[in-house]
Amino acid sequence: MSKPYIAPSILAADFANLQSEVEMLNSSQADWIHIDIMDGIFVPNISFGIPVMQAINKHATKPLDVHLMIEKPENYVEAFKNAGADIISVHYEACPHLHRNLQQINALGCKAGVAINPHTNVQLLEDVILNIDVVCLMSVNPGFGGQKFIENTFYKVRKLKEMITAANSSTLIEIDGGVNVENAPKLLEAGADILVAGSFVFNSDDPQDTISNLKSV
Ligand code: DX5
Ligand code: ZN
Q: In angstroms, rounded to a whole number, what is the distance separating the alpha carbons of residues 177 and 145?
């Protein structure tokens, strides 16, 4: 796997043809499959849950990157691990005991991620940065695909990259929301490692070609 890692978001796929959508990603240059779980409480939308995750896992040959936009994620991480999750991200804003959440995810054998909303300062992660495998920087407000990229993200990526380098940590930076071939080069230049892309991939004429284009920006 070479960088940047590309993680298409299945949220933008055709759910009536999930198997063929997953197979399309299997034979593409995608590195991970990004799975958006929304509970209608932490975010104002509901996506899908564990049975759909199991259905994806039945066909996927790539690591499953699960983004939990839910309250009380500690009650569900084990179920998501059992449903095939390789990376599990919880939201900073939903976790008063974040360090414990990270320990729980690691103990399950998954990579531990923390997602932060656009208004959340990256500095708040400083004291746990060595415990985080992936920071998922939200470049839109979580809850919906197809939103406009928030430009302040470039500044946040640079600040986060500085913090990771200063701590000599191997934490990866993932960008989620409104990613396309126009903002991708600038994100990578600022220090991003993983690009999530939903509508830009699935609404394009040739999703596999779009994934290759993102991979080679
Ligand atoms: C937003 C989700 C994103 C979303 C990305 O709440 O976390 O992963 O699916 O979709 P696009 O690329 O369409 O913004
Ligand atoms: Zn996401």
A: 7
